[in-house]
Batch of 4 targets.
Target 1
Amino acid sequence: MTTTEAIRHLGSLYAFANAQEVKAVEMAIEALKRSQPTRKHKPIIRNAIKCVSCDDVIESIHRHDAKKCKCGRVGVDGGLDYLGRIGNERDFIDMGEWA
Ligand SMILES: [Zn+2]
């Protein structure tokens, strides 16, 4: 599992987690980021997806800005910190952008 996949997976847990679990997920994400200091990440400038079921385009503005589409099938989270994706990858078109 790559760091990006791990962070994406952890981000998807937000929708179902309580405050304590969210804190644990955040700490895990921070640890993952620190564990690969030499890896070059392009800064995220847009964190958005389009739901293929309802055509809703949803965008996460900040780290804890979790949003779901109109039909509730998919969601985004993480703002410009990480690309949190909720739902199945085949159910959305990724519109994330990097600098
Ligand atoms: Zn939808």
Note: The two ends are 24 Å apart (CA to CA).
Target 2
Amino acid sequence: MKLPDYIIQVAQHAAGEEPTGNADARTMAALREYDHEHDEFDCASDGERLIVSVAQHAAGLSGKDIDGRMGPTTEAAVRAYVAKHLGGTTATRPAFHTRMAVYRAPGANAAPGLLKDGIDLRDPSMIVPDGGLAEIPTRKTMKGVYGDADALGKEAMQARLATLTGLPGRFNKGDGVLHGVHRLAGPHLRLALELCARFGVIDEIYRIGTYNHRHMRHDPSMPLSFHAYGVGLDVNPRENFAWVPGASEKQVAPFSDAWRQKYPRGVSEALVLCFKKAGYGWGGDWPGFRDPMHFELVR
Ligand SMILES: [Zn+2]
């Protein structure tokens, strides 16, 4: 990326990250989270456009001025932000997780048992929740079950979404509410979170992102993502950022030592197993594109 460091630093600072000027995977995950948290703008693309959009929003620009492109207006506003917030110091806002008093780092829950109340998380068979799907659709059958987002369009898909209330956990606003979940996915998500509570890992979760009308990997040439169906969700995105392993990194298996070094505050194995038990697939299992924040109700 050829953006000036200070643009990246402003975006990082606004998103509660250390302003290193290096647009690494963790930074990009934090910026996407910032995008999701702010309704005033929605940056469909990744990379430079997202960085500049966040910097523009943080610098007080609005409306059409948040276009993800550098220009004199952006330059002036961002320079003013630097002078005010970053002048001669690298002080940062506390990261999002430290602002969440309830958040406990994974490890506080070190090695919770995987067998409890007759439920064995290592057993790969799924529990079907009341009102849930007896069988989880595959990539081939999912459009027939959930609706075809490409054909139906945004509004028709939104009509299939529900809001869940009374969920265990203190994520997002801490009120046990999740918007933007496909009606058919609701019972499965509730079960996943109830299992997390039962197995003592629910407080790992401080953020869940659900419905989002966007393309896979934020790339408009890719199909719509499962987030556009309300059947995909992201847990603590910035602690579980996605990455493409190079040839020498293909061996980095989930929850190995190298994995834990990469994701020191990443989701625990017990948490992943709770979601799998409720029918979810996990993006951390994809060897060519590790996406450990991501769960989807697709086989
Ligand atoms: Zn996702």
Note: The longest strand covers residues 178-182.
Target 3
Amino acid sequence: MKKSIQSFLNKPDVMDLLIRNINETISTTKKDKDLLLTYRDGKAAATNQSLQKNINSFLIQLYSDEVGITNPLGPKKDEKKLLLFYYLLDDLCPIVRSLLYSINLLGICLSKLLTNSLQQKGLTVFTFTGRLYFAFDLIAADNLAVHDLGGFQKNFNHGHFCRMCYVSYEYKSIPLTNISFLLRTEISHEIHLKQVLKSNIHICGINDTSDLSNLIAFHPVKSLPFDIMHDYSEGVCMIMINSILKAFSVRRILAYAQIESRLEDFKYRQNDESNKPPVTKQKHLTNNHIGGSASQKRLLFQLLHVIFNDVIDRLTDILPIYICLREIVSIVFATKIRKPWLAYLKTLTITFHSLMIERLPDYVTAKVHFITHYSELIKRNGPPRNYWCQRFQGKHLYFKRLATRSCSFKNVPFTLAKRHQLRLALLLSYDNFHNLIDKPVSTKIINPSQLPVEIRLLLVQHQYDLLTYIESQTLIHKHVKYIKKTLFLL
Ligand SMILES: [Zn+2]
């Protein structure tokens, strides 16, 4: 990892992007103290040991997931699994972070020692005078993997299933307007862990010491955040879609065949077309399993009221839960969050939790409880989009495919690591590591008088009226595609 970070940072464009983004975010949050942009703006950064030692350290985020190397349909599907760790320089700007080649392989084993050496000793690179230090911040993973890494119980259907508070399974269906649960702290966790190690029984959902306990600045209570992709896109949003579609049929508002044909006939516009979800059929609703990728599922959730605009108002009991969840989703998926929104988010999540218990009690899962912690999570670690699993999973897919397609079972970790390092070496041989595309398509020069009056006025106000204007049908700017006649929220 040390060598690959070194080669990575020796690329002038990478170093330039890193430093520019850190300076930009720090100056923006200095000017506007209400803004939460990165991990550095949350409460957790103030107590991070490595950041306390050196405030200028670059942040490193980890991700962990498994790869099955046997036939996924065969009888031995769960027998041979490899645990892969990835790292990401957390200070890169959002667009660069989302590129898959910004995520790199840390190891196909537990490599905590390497990360510690970067935090303690740092490293030098050609593109920067002075020594660079690094600070570990968070580990992203799905709930099961996170509980495994943190030494928590690996079951969400009994006992103390939440890694953020001391709720127990029998209290999960009591509205949080009537009761509240103590949050786990580092001190209380250590006390319970000592008892666990002494008596060899599980206490408060703690099973064992974390495998990563030697990693500097790591603590199971503060370094293992919830993930919006698993909790929302593949969690509560799916519960909502499922219950709405089922309610249409049960209440004889629409038959299953009508639901299917509406989902099939809906025309997705240019920007959404690539994420068009597969049609949800009756068998999917019966099995409570809606297919598709996380982005397809989130798109379906967001367009559900448009697809069923004429009938959704008839679900007078479920509609308020859907509206409440949409409001929550709009905040937790935002890249910039304001501190005053968090109190509102807390109220919204508690309302959502209470409404679910009252109106859809059969669907109250552990994830419905996790949702209620998001305001505290954001207060600690900044916007959840900075530590979601979505892009990491994109990178992980490369290894998942490679593991089964390479058909090499002699030394699978070696094959995977070698193939990845060769690919990385190729990327590092180019002048620029990040090839951010800027490209206009179908362009023509236009006269400012052809522009609408409102736009002309704006241009005059900002003294841009004397420039030459080029109109383009499609514009790719820093990897983001802008198409004419589509709407973008910036
Ligand atoms: Zn909890």
Note: Residues 228-385 form one domain.
Target 4
Amino acid sequence: MAGGRDRWLEGLKVVLSLKSDADRLRWSLYSSDSVDTELQEAIAVAEHAMGAVLETLELPDDGDSDTTRAYIALRKVEASYDVRQLRDLFEYDGVTSAESAAELLIELCALRNECARRCWYNSYPAMALTAQCIPSTSGYAHAVLRYLGEPRRIDAKEYLSIECFDKYWAGVEARLNSVAVCGVVRDRDYVDFIAAMLGSLKLECLSSSIDIVVKDQPYASGICFDLSTDVGIRRAGILLRPTGIRSFFVAAHELGHAVLCLQHGGGLTNIPSWFDESNAYLVEDNQPDVRAALRELFDDNAVSSWLAIHSELREIEYCRIYASILLEDAIWAMADRRDISVREKVELISEMCREIYSTYLNTCYRDAREWAFDSFRSIDPVYVHSYGIGRNAAAILRSCRCRPGQLGPYDVSREALDAILAKTTR
Ligand SMILES: [Zn+2]
């Protein structure tokens, strides 16, 4: 099977190279000021070429626990026409009603499961977790949750009339912006903040390798791109949507991704996402450095209030992560059931969702179908585990006095994951 092995390795190289081309082009598109149809076409060409290679690329028939094999299988599934069509409905807000979104999401899960089985994995989550170096044994999600610990119940009485989680969050976020600040926040302030963070972290040497673009865009509150080239020049790009004070914390988070990308070399196959996230949390939740950097730009009192509100936002985010892992487990298991209708599935999951959120957020979650719109679920299924583990690993890293930018943290982070594994096998 030497020929087969060679073909696999060659195909792998081509796929990774096309993926990085597409990412660099996407950065150019996202950070450009106008709708650039040439760039859009170039991205489509790179993605089409990658899809074509993936379609015919045969996975080695051994090593279904191999991370790279699982990663390529994942790309194969995501590149398939049917999955793309359905997923794009969420990604580009093509879905209008919450009800149809929920039904489509269940359909998407079932389809992803079916495609994963064609790649010889038991389910899509099993494949995606393997790609993240996370074991996919049944009951694993619950073991992770036991390890992570239940979120603190948040008293949300003042938001009782808010009908969905996103709006609840927006309400708390608005408080961040309402704390008095002298003058408005300018786009330039985010760039200065990142420079100050690098100074505080003693990583000024990286500043010339990071491109920062602040602009109103629909893609995300913040994204970090790996812009490194094949010839070994490492570069990272941070795209930020300026939405007020919270964007400083988003900037810190994305900086964590950028630091890792510049020091380890990016690429999902090199770095599992939970480790990538742990580095991002390590920077974002690093209050002394964030405080020092913000104080270079703003008044002390305002900065202290922002840090306190940000901590509250982190708790809410943790509720979302925790609830999402719980819910995700149920959604994926439900997707394959043939004994009940899609409508019944939606009702069962909605009920579960209502119960979970009212447990932790003390709020009435009136339109429970909003779960279908959560990007954790529609675009990055299973990725939420990375946030849960990343957040926890970051806390362990901090307690060991690890600083962002050290090469050592991977081992500590790995230990955090191993601690979870030990609990799951017990
Ligand atoms: Zn992140």
Note: The mean pLDDT is 82.
